[in-house]
Design goal:
Blueprint (H helix, E strand, L loop, with lengths): L25 H11 L9 E5 L5 H8 L4 E6 L2 H13 L7 E5 L2 H4 L11 E4 L8 H10 L8 E7 L10 E9 L2 E8 L7
Parallel strand pairs: 1-2, 1-4, 2-3, 4-5
Antiparallel strand pairs: 5-7, 6-7
């Protein structure tokens, strides 16, 4: 795994990937970021990487100019891995927060204290929590209108789209599907 663009471009993410983590492949990550860049500029963004695994998605966003990143996972091993990568890349503490928390509850918790512009979601496919996470994104007061959400999930799972989220792009890769959405007010036309 390597960082594709920005100030950390070309740097490999060091260490052995924690067990049960399925990192987003470089080519897929590059496609996701290319699509997102059509809708927002990364400079100054606040990002949240739910079910962060290796943290590669949020680290890529930081590399491209994001101001701050939340790294959220229920696996202590994943979060230790992420902390090691952040330390290796010399990303300083004011630029991130690491939280051992359930993804579907994080955005509704007191752990969040700023609006989030970009959210990455990539839970373990077998856990089938994707719709609970999407529902929390939809109802979180920290996810304003215009926020972009990138959701990676297994093709065997069905994604329920709340009224205030609109699909802006979709891609399928083998057993994975990526749906990119933008939050809009429930009264806005789709």
């Amino acid at each position: 795994m390597r960082i594709i663009s920005g100030i950390y471009k070309g740097r490999n993410i060091p260490g052995k990937v924690p067990p049960n983590v399925r990192p987003t492949q470089d080519a897929m990550r590059e496609t996701i970021f290319n699509i997102i860049s059509n809708f927002i500029d990364f400079e100054g963004l606040v990002v949240c990487d739910l079910c962060c695994g290796t943290g590669a998605m949020a680290i890529e966003a930081l590399s491209r100019g994001a101001e701050f990143a939340y790294f959220v996972d229920i696996s202590r091993q994943s979060l230790d891995f992420v902390k090691n990568v952040l330390d290796t890349f010399k990303i300083e503490r004011p630029k991130y927060q690491i939280s051992l928390y359930r993804a579907e509850k994080f955005l509704l918790s007191d752990k969040v204290n700023r609006n989030i512009d970009l959210i990455f979601v990539d839970p373990p496919y077998k856990n089938n929590v994707i719709n609970d996470i999407v529902a929390s994104i939809s109802s979180s007061r920290f996810v304003p209108d215009g926020a972009i959400i990138s959701i990676e999930y297994g093709i065997a799972n069905s994604l329920l789209i709340p009224e205030n989220l609109e699909i802006i792009a979709e891609r399928q890769y083998s057993i994975s599907k990526v749906t990119l959405m933008r939050k809009a007010s429930a009264s806005s036309p789709a």
